[in-house]
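ingest -> validate -> predict -> emit
validate: passed (alphabet ok, no gaps, 304 aa)
predict: started
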Amino acid sequence: MEQPLRGRGRAIDCLLGLFSHLSLPALHRLGRAVAWLSERLHREEWHVARVNAELCFPDWSSEERERLARAALRENAKGLFELAALWKWPMPRVLGLVRSVEGADAVDEALSEGRGLLVIAPHHGAWELLQMWLAQRVRLHALYRPPRWADLEVLLNRGRSRSGAVFWPARPSGIRALFKALKAGEAVGVLPDQSPPGEGVFVPFFGRRAKTMTLFGKLAARTDAPVVIGWAERLALGAGYRLHWRRVTEPVGDADPETAATALNREIERVVRDRPEQYQWTYRRFSRRPEGSANPYELKEGES
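emit:
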């Protein structure tokens, strides 16, 4: 029996229902307007995007970094508003937004090996749409971290699982479910570019040490499942999406956790450099630091 929505979850669901009557171009225009407002009000996400641009692209000019932060803010806001379409429109209409798929044969060939499929899905472009497309081709499993506000959990799971994908809470039981799925020849998707609160290693990401998960390396090493990386490119003017898939060649399943995590970050970097403005630069990727290191996102006196 489906759990009822409560509190914030119910309110946001109503808003998504209202926005779902709009076209994708209109939703993206709303996102651009909200991004403009966020910049003018000096909201936190604007500060974080600028800091990330400075950390990851030190060889760029200050004007180039500012443009990246501004564009990333727009893309991030588009991603929020497009949920009204992805979570509310009928699935055939949602999948109809996919204008082309590059590298679909990489997915098919990996699945044909019969050892399951491991998917690296960075927070790049429309990652919610990426899992919806993949879940139509293979039984897909993924972990999720329960949101800060508990009353949003039902909404998130309802929106994401409408594709047929199965989402497990990030607990030992969920991790066991992922290993079981791979053993059964099914797919496991991981969004591996968030700083894990628990086990992790500090390895380079865009030349900066970032706490990186070791779970993905363990999944790859223990199952010998083929690995692909994918992302859904958001096309201009709300024209839809272009999906990209590629077989992973980096040693992401190396027995050494640091080697595996470094390889994982290299694969993500390759994707991000293709369209850097569509990466989630509003996330505090470098907030968890080695002991004694300063948090780069802390505002200095006089900053806003």
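Strands lie at 98-102, 117-120, 140-144, 166-169, 187-190, 201-205, 208-212, 227-234, 241-247.
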